[in-house]
Amino acid sequence: MPIQYSDNGHDSNSVINLIFLHSGSSELDNHTIHSNWRLSSDHAPLTIIIPIAEEHIISSKHSIIKDSEEELTFIKDLTNFIKNINTSNISYITSLDKAVDKFASAVEVTWEKNLKAINITRHFKSWWDENCCRDLEKYRLSKSLED
């Protein structure tokens, strides 16, 4: 079926437009040429319906939120650990390595103790809070513009 229509009687109609579809996919291997939609254009529009399933992709990360109680506790615990490091016998590289390993371990343990799982969504903003989540869920359930 032609897609480009000649505006004179001497040339034939032709197919020059391209649409790339997934071969072998019943959902994506179909299209419609709308010759009656072309109006004054010499090209007929092509359409394809692409099914999009509603899907929630939940991604999360673990972090300590800035200016939170967890951040204050993390800093306080780590500060106490640093204050109590015994540096009196760091005279060889092996004793320095041990002290650094202890410090790294303390950072890891303190971090793990204070971090929180944070869901990454399109609403991941500093102002987004539990009230926003609750209200969004209420709207999703009701589909009412009032919510």
Structure, explained:
This protein is an alpha+beta fold. The chain has two domains: 1-52, no CATH class; 59-142, no CATH class. Helices cover 34% and strands 10% of the residues. The chain has three helices and four strands; from the N terminus they run βββααβα. It has helices spanning 69-83, 93-114, 130-142, and strands at 32-33, 46-47, 59-63, 116-120. The strands form two sheets. Strands 1-2 form a two-stranded antiparallel ribbon. The protein is elongated.
Note poorly predicted spans.
none
SS field, number of helical segments: 3
When the domains are counted, the total is 2
**Form type:** elongated
Strand-residue fraction? 5-15%
Helix content: 25-40%
Spatial strand sequence of the major β-sheet: 1-2
**Intertermini distance:** 49 Å
Order of helices and strands: EEEHHEH
Counting DSSP E segments of at least 2 residues, the number of strands comes to 4
Largest sheet: 2 strands, antiparallel
Indicate the radius of gyration in whole angstroms: 31 Å
Secondary-structure content class: alpha+beta
Question: What tags apply to this protein structure?
Answer:
147 residues; alpha+beta; 2 domains; two-stranded antiparallel ribbon; two-stranded antiparallel sheet
